[in-house]
Design goal:
The structure holds 2 protein chains of 2 kinds. Chain A contains 4 helices and 18 strands. Chain A is mainly β. In chain A, a hairpin with a 2-residue loop joins β6 and β7. The radius of gyration of chain B is 21 Å and the shape is elongated. The chains are: A mainly beta, B mainly beta. Chains A and B meet through β18 of A and α1, β4, β9 and β11 of B.
């Protein structure tokens, strides 16, 4: 009867990272630079190309321009303990190295996912066409950090260069990111769900308008009410991007209910997400 | 650790925020929880509870002589400040009241190993302002300018102990009072922003108990409903193999629900069973969308 995704991570817990706990929590709202926007940050294409527009589908070639910003996240659980899975999105940032995901994909059950956090853009059945990008900084919202408030279940990673020496956004591009947008958008929901009926090997996309309502649990915690879309997502899809206008990130998959796999919930992107993005963008 | 939110726990969290020390992110200086209550025509009790940005308005009606009752709670975003509470309940009403303490104060039991405050302080008084509320189709209507209430600060304690253990003992007594095998039928479904569940249970010659709950979100408010009744054990029939069950609870329920096996082994849950929640009469409790479970204790 409970919210599902955060509690069905594939393997165990993550280790704490005390250094990250010391990171400053409150930084300026808007990203610096000419590309900064009042309520967002523009996309950075890796190359020309357009996305397909069907509603619910397996994307057989996630390396296509515009799709490769989506990736699978592998979270090491320590020696011999396997890894957890999430999803994430490369977003355009000043340091060209920011991945946005769910808060519980970087900080879960009171611990940072510090062992080894790897983003694999364009992942497809074990293939890593753009290599792997290992996190060197993780962050989340103060509300997720303090009390795992699902209305703020958003996380960020700043990743290092891949095996070819490329920065993330140079390799695959980056979606824009927007906040404080109207509630009822049409979202392209991306992710690499692992649990049945999915297998974790393919990028999934579901295009749906958000419900005009919210998870009832969202009302019981402070913050902006969450969003819901009629999309089937299973564990592993956490952190997958909710994209508007084709290439602007405006949400992430956060949770679901075991009794209803066909409804996906994610936090509203408000000012706290803007602050998180600004913090991540400033990491050198 | 963030615990899963269970359907049945939501109303309890909201309605008992003032009376339980819940573990959580309690912080010194957090705004208080507010509660006010009043009676409305038709035998309804209206209670408003607010904490943080959450305000719930509960409408309850108990029928002790019939061992039944129902509660509907409307939950909305609001503002709960040090001495005021306000919220909008969509098209159903609004609340904007200030708290005027009477001077009567009650101190809670001190907790051990608390992070921050180690006890709660409850101030009693009156709320003045405006509360307007009209339930769906006017089943209840309230227009009040004052109501008795209280302000409790902090509304949660973060303590290592869990009070005086009274709840644990009550639970033990409850278990000890159960004689015979308990048979339980559960039926429910969740789809989109709606959840509907029925639990029927019966043990030996004791009373059969029925409770239905509903959650839904409509725009900027969430609505949680429950209805319950205790009835004759004859209203809950099953066979020894648990291949069949039939329930016919009295009001606020109506009709009969039947769980049986089809020739291919599939469960069929059908009939005319429905429940009348406050503000939502005649909600069907049977159909192919319901998942069912029939079990019996050892």
């Amino acid at each position: 009867m409970g919210r599902l995704y955060p509690h069905l991570r594939l393997m165990g817990l993550c280790r704490a990272n005390a250094a990250l706990l010391c990171a400053a929590l409150l930084l300026a709202l808007a990203p610096a630079g000419a590309q900064a926007a009042r309520n967002g940050y523009p996309p950075r294409p890796a190359a020309s190309g357009a996305r397909a527009s069907s509603t619910s589908e397996v994307l057989p070639d996630p390396t296509l321009p515009g799709l490769a910003v989506n990736g699978a996240v592998f979270i090491g659980e320590g020696r011999g303990r396997g890894f957890a899975r999430c999803s994430g999105t490369s977003v355009n940032a000043a340091n060209l190295s920011v991945v946005i995901t769910a808060g519980h994909c970087v900080y879960d059950e009171g611990r940072w996912s510090a062992h080894r956090w790897v983003f694999v853009p364009g992942y497809h059945h074990g293939e890593r066409p753009f290599g792997t990008f290992t996190a060197r900084w993780l962050g989340t919202t103060p509300q997720w950090l303090a009390g795992e408030n699902f209305n703020f279940d958003v996380g960020a990673a700043v990743v290092g260069r891949n095996e070819r020496g490329q920065l993330l956004a140079d390799a695959v591009g980056g979606d824009g990111i927007a906040w404080n947008r109207p509630l009822h958008q049409v979202f392209d929901v991306y992710g690499y769900p692992v649990a049945r009926p999915f297998d974790g090997g393919t990028l999934q996309r579901c295009s749906q308008a958000a419900y005009e309502g919210h998870d009832i649990g969202s009302f019981l915690e402070p913050g902006p009410l969450d969003l819901a879309v009629p999309c089937e997502v299973s564990p592993g899809g956490s952190g997958g991007g909710w994209v508007i206008h084709g290439n602007v990130l405006n949400g992430v998959t956060s949770l679901g209910y075991s009794e209803d796999a066909t409804t996906d919930y994610g936090p509203y992107f408000g000012k706290e997400v803007a602050r998180l993005f600004a913090r991540a963008s400033r990491v050198k | 650790m963030r615990l899963p939110r269970q359907a049945g726990a939501l109303a309890a969290v909201l309605l008992t925020a003032l009376s339980l020390a819940l573990p959580g992110a309690a912080q010194a200086g957090q705004p208080p929880a507010m509660k006010l209550s009043l009676h409305a025509a038709g035998g309804y009790q209206v209670t408003v509870t607010g904490f943080d940005q959450t305000v719930g308005l509960s409408v309850a009606r108990r029928r002790p002589s019939q061992h039944s009752g129902a509660t509907t709670t409307y939950i909305a975003r609001g503002e709960v400040g040090p001495d005021a509470i306000q919220a909008e309940f969509g098209g159903l009403g609004s609340l904007s009241m200030r708290f005027r303490p009477s001077g009567q104060v009650r101190y809670g039991k001190r907790g051990r190993e608390c992070a921050g405050p180690d006890r709660t302080v409850t101030r009693f008084g009156r709320f003045v302002g405006v509360l307007r509320f009209r339930g769906e189709d006017g089943y209840v209507s309230v227009h009040a300018h004052q109501a008795k209430g209280e302000s409790r600060s902090p509304y949660t304690l973060q303590c290592a102990d869990s009070g005086d253990g009274r709840q644990d003992r009550e639970a033990v007594h409850g278990e000890a009072a159960e004689h015979g095998k308990r048979t339980t039928l559960r039926a429910g479904f969740r789809l989109g922003l709606r959840d509907l569940d029925l639990e029927a249970s019966s043990s030996g010659a004791g009373q059969a108990r029925y409770i239905a709950t509903s959650e839904q979100s409509e725009g900027q408010i969430a609505i949680y409903r429950d209805a319950f009744v205790q009835a004759s054990p004859l209203t809950f029939a099953t066979d020894s193999a648990l291949s069949f069950a039939s329930v016919s609870p009295p009001a606020p329920f109506s009709g009969t629900g039947t769980l049986r096996r089809a020739a291919n082994g599939a469960r069929i849950w059908d009939g005319s069973l429905a429940v009348s929640f406050l503000g939502a009469p005649g909600v069907p409790l049977v159909g192919p969308e319901f998942r069912t479970a029939l079990s019996r204790s050892w």
